[in-house]
Specification:
Length: about 290
């Protein structure tokens, strides 16, 4: 029997206006007593359903205006602040034109109401294996800028996830921004999502691909996979097969099969592991073809 909870459990709520105030609260936290959030589109439902233990304090970052930005500079790339909403990313022309696969991934996240509240940084910090933004960010070579009272550190996106719903963020540390370098010259990218109701459901399989082809040869390929391993992942063996090789249908089919073999899906209520592997093969092949046809 399923129990539905309509009320939130008891906790204190704080909304600091300065980063230093947030650090002070986090510094006094012991054993996860303070939980940080931005949009709240993930944590609030989980608290209502008692899927996670209620913290003593829920710390809302929305009041810290210095974390609310989305910027692009020629030659430097894209900076996505911790409070930049998903809808803001989808509406930015410099994202749609300069980083189309990130635009596609952001646009694939839930409903418009969720996009208006949720953030891209929150999407990766939730660290669910099926997160839509991660495969695209992996292919784009994104880095996560984390900060604490001790300063800042930079983490490659591929090293940010440590397990399902887990990241390498330390105690007293928050994500300041995501940095995305400019798309390489000649690079084409795409994100494809398989789900029962398009953006309204979590991805059964998510595939990002970035391809550079010159004179009929793959000079660079990056393939990001979501929902088919404990964390979002790169299909390194498939990439290695393609890079430096002549473009051909048989080669693409072999790479897609290899990507499926690299994945580590599970059986759950949304799909079987076998089905997910088959769909990785289908979507990787499709994504590469779409990149080549742009």
């Amino acid at each position: 029997m399923t129990t539905f909870y309509r009320r939130l459990p008891k906790f204190d709520y704080v909304k600091p206006k300065e980063v230093e105030e947030a650090f002070r609260l986090l510094g006094n936290s012991d054993g996860g007593k303070v939980k940080v959030f931005a949009g709240g589109t993930d944590i609030i439902p989980k608290l209502k359903q008692r899927l996670i233990k209620a913290p003593e304090v829920l710390l809302d970052l929305k009041g810290i205006s210095e974390l609310d930005y989305l910027e692009y500079k020629e030659g430097a790339g894209l900076r996505i602040g911790a409070l930049a909403t998903i809808s803001r990313v989808t509406e930015a022309l410099f994202v749609k034109e300069g980083f189309p696969m990130l635009f596609q991934a952001a646009n694939a996240i839930a409903s418009r109401q969720i996009q208006n509240r949720g953030t891209i940084v929150g999407n990766i910090c939730n660290a669910v294996p099926s997160t839509d933004s991660a495969p695209a960010l992996l292919c784009l070579g994104a880095e996560v800028i984390c900060m604490s009272r001790g300063g800042e550190r930079k983490i490659e996106m591929e090293n940010f996830f440590s397990g399902p719903n887990e990241t390498v963020l330390g105690s007293g540390e928050i994500v300041k921004e995501i940095q995305v370098p400019p798309m390489p010259v000649g690079g084409k990218g795409v994100y494809l999502k398989l789900s029962p109701r398009s953006k309204m459901d979590l991805a059964v399989v998510g595939v990002g691909a970035m391809v550079i082809e010159e004179d009929g040869v793959f000079t660079d390929v990056k393939i990001g996979l979501g929902a088919v391993a404990p964390t979002p992942m790169r299909a390194r063996k498939a990439e290695g097969l393609l890079i430096g090789a002549k473009v051909g249908e048989e080669l693409i089919e072999k790479a897609a099969y290899l990507a499926a073999e690299e994945s580590k899906p599970i059986d759950d209520h949304r799909a079987s592991a076998a089905y997910r592997r088959m769909m990785v093969e289908v979507l990787v092949k499709r994504a590469i073809h779409q990149c080549l046809s742009h």
